[in-house]
Design goal:
Creatine Amidinohydrolase; 26% strand
């Protein structure tokens, strides 16, 4: 049985394990796309590769047709923060390419994103990508039963500011996920500890910092999807789906469940015998 706490979908352990199947499809697809994001490939080719990889795994793309979105993945290049639509743009040396991917298996969604530095990028851009990923893991480490959403937001913000980044995008947030791609609660990337809904076992969150080298202000292109930095600065985006379980956090879209990255933060992720695949 699925139940809700103040509008938030709370999953049983069996349902979380079902979500792991979708998460693994997403994680494996992103690794395929990471390797394929090289100079000369087009964004449309990456999208077709993602669709084949997801389909071959017996899953369905979460994004294709979602509120009219026309592609399997979002491909956001350089000053595009999120929701870029794959087209015939050719990836070039020095680009930052964010790839956001979702898949659904038996009605359960997984959602994750990576930013790929293509070839030689500046030290500042490489640091930006690393900061987005580190902030995501800091947020995941703060997502524990008894904490509040604001604790996750505060951890993400503190990590980014400690790395020297103030261009933290506020207009787009992380979110709950499960039988729908986007659910309550919103998970902002800035916030105050101790605020917001309380986290409980069975909640599943998509935590996704978005940060720029300049302003936090963004605008949306005429296609009503592509979100771009207002000042033209480059952006990075990192995302994983994490479940709060009795055994600890389980990063459903990470191939190792998040164990290696969380261990570096002093957090024990779920053991392999929790039903990992």
């Amino acid at each position: 049985m699925l139940w809700r706490r103040r509008g938030i979908e709370v999953k049983t352990p069996e349902q979380v394990r079902a979500m792991r199947s979708a998460g693994l499809v997403v994680g494996r697809t992103l690794e395929v796309l990471r390797a394929a994001t090289v100079p000369g490939v087009t964004l449309a080719e990456l999208d077709a590769l993602a669709e084949r990889t997801i389909s071959d795994a017996g899953a369905t793309p979460s994004f294709l047709g979602y509120q009219g979105f026309p592609a399997t993945i979002c491909t956001s290049v350089n000053d595009v923060v999120v929701h870029g639509i794959p087209d015939d743009t050719v990836v070039a040396e020095g680009d930052l390419v964010s790839v956001d991917c979702g898949a659904v298996v038996d009605g359960w969604h997984g959602d994750a994103a990576i930013t790929v530095p293509v070839g030689r990028v500046t030290a500042a851009e490489r640091a930006l990508v690393a900061a987005a990923e580190a902030a995501m893991w800091a947020g995941i480490a703060a997502a524990r039963p008894g904490a509040r959403v604001g604790d996750v937001s505060a951890a993400v913000e503190a990590s980014l500011r400690a790395a020297g980044h103030d261009g933290i995008v506020r207009d787009y947030t992380g979110h709950g996920i499960g039988t729908a791609l986007h659910q309550a609660p919103d998970v902002p990337n800035v916030g105050r500890a101790g605020r917001g809904p309380r986290l409980t076992v069975g909640m599943v969150l998509a935590i996704e910092p978005m940060v720029t080298l300049g302003t936090d202000e963004v605008d949306v292109d005429a296609d009503e999807w592509t979100v771009r930095t207002l000042d033209g600065s480059r952006a990075a985006h990192s995302e994983h789906t994490v479940a709060l379980t009795e055994a600890g956090p389980w990063v459903l879209t990470s191939l190792d469940g998040g164990r290696e990255a969380l261990a570096g933060l002093g957090v024990e992720a779920v053991a392999l015998d929790y039903g990992d695949a």
